[in-house]
Amino acid sequence: xxxxxxxxxxATPRTFTNPTSQVLEIKNRLFLIDCGEGxxxxxxxxxxxxSKINQIFISHLHGDHFFGLIGLISTFSLLNRNNDLHIYGPxxxxxxxxxxxxxxxxxxxxxxxxxxxxxxxxxxxxxxDKVLVKTIPLKHRIYTNGFLFQEKLDExxxxxxxxxxxxxxxxxxxNIKNGKDILLDDGRLIPNNLLTFNPEKPxxxxxxxxxxxxxxxxxxxxxxxxLYHESTFLQSEETLAAKTMHTTAIxxxxxxxxxxxxxxxxxxxxxxxxxIEVFKEEASTIFSNVLLADDGKTFEF
Amino acid sequence: xxxxxxxxxxATPRTFTNPTSQVLEIKNRLFLIDCGEGxxxxxxxxxxxxSKINQIFISHLHGDHFFGLIGLISTFSLLNRNNDLHIYGPxxxxxxxxxxxxxxxxxxxxxxxxxxxxxxxxxxxxxxDKVLVKTIPLKHRIYTNGFLFQEKLDExxxxxxxxxxxxxxxxxxxNIKNGKDILLDDGRLIPNNLLTFNPEKPxxxxxxxxxxxxxxxxxxxxxxxxLYHESTFLQSEETLAAKTMHTTAIxxxxxxxxxxxxxxxxxxxxxxxxxIEVFKEEASTIFSNVLLADDGKTFEF
Lengths: 301, 301
What we know:
2 copies of one chain form a homodimer. The first copy, chain A, has about 300 residues and is α/β, with parallel strands linked by helices.
């Protein structure tokens, strides 16, 4: 699982900081999460192949999370993309994109599928044979979702030495990987655990931005491997955080601790602070395993 | 008159090139012309004060000319702008901007005035005591206007030595600057030309992008001081230029020559070419006074 931060600062794009966007690579799929202005340039700078992005998840319709989407779609079109593109985001996103495509008379030459969200309960929005994506309903000034990306449990791993020892034919391998026991010709029943190893534990990543401190998300993000949680402010701006429905570093760490996650990644920093290390300093007083997102940074989990 | 090029490349923003946007400073006013994605970052990089921009002119609704507008408006709002903002652009631009402001529930705290254009004849769209702006109807794949910025003739300049010699009182100065002759107490009539100098010749700037080669614009841009004309392609791509309704460098130079402009500035380059100097080389075979726009470049006329 590889996370590339394209942008992780709040409010407006600036000379050296970018609004929210990130790419999650999981089981050889690339998921784009949020798409602030300038995301397409950040994708180029980070050498991410445009054609590998087939799913885009938009948390909410504040500009710093989606103003780059129409430009990215237009560029996909100019690059003669063929693949279908799926966009998951709040109701209204389809109208915004289609209006601009209509007025510029430049309908893309690929299929554009909108999956508009309006449910306030967590729901599965994407699923294939390897990965499942659920919404994490957040509490912000407008309708907002985080997203939980879960790897599915792989099939069991064949113990090659064992299957050869029992002289089991190849045609039974898939059954074994699916967990079946095997009846040999001599009548012996070989239990599956002698023929296989456990698959790797599936990993999970939760993206939570933007939101105020809310414990309603705890059951959904319980024990995830990596939690990206917004921490727009420091504790000194706690009142402002509450008023604008954002989170402080201490609050993000509290959520990480209560959800018993393995790793917390902080982001969505207000640009009022000179250095982002202070976010880690404050969060670390509550939760030990804290990393700081920054534009262009990658994390492998 | 000072022109700052924020972006002058066609199609998509890239790591080192930006889509169309420029700032014209004329008579202490700042006019923003077009607003491709990333314009607000380019404004910051070029140290242009956001609060001094009160008029934005949008040529057409292709993304590389206006996808940065909604982000700029949002940033104005976050910066607690108070001044009214006037936007001049094709019909539909109001719907695009208002839809996004409504869905993000972030209506700005300043007045936003839309001046939607649909006339196919040149018309005056802005006028104050110093400056006049007219549309230049262009021929492109969708409804498009260039813009002609004209300084108005200043009042005449007082010849201080002369008015002192004739002992003329201060209360008559404004009449003299307005061109009036003066009757002295001793009965002598002093003609205005003895009391004043001619004002500076008013300057004019024509922005023409995007368009195919069209001579219909010649009467409107006749003898302007500076013509910015798109030259997306070189002559080797003449067929592609015609097909996409763009212009070659040679064609832009031909327009400059026929309109007898003083200075031609080329821009809106396709990124297919390694160096932009070739645009100047080709254009210079037709018209001698050619400058190349480039991102971050300023011109004082």
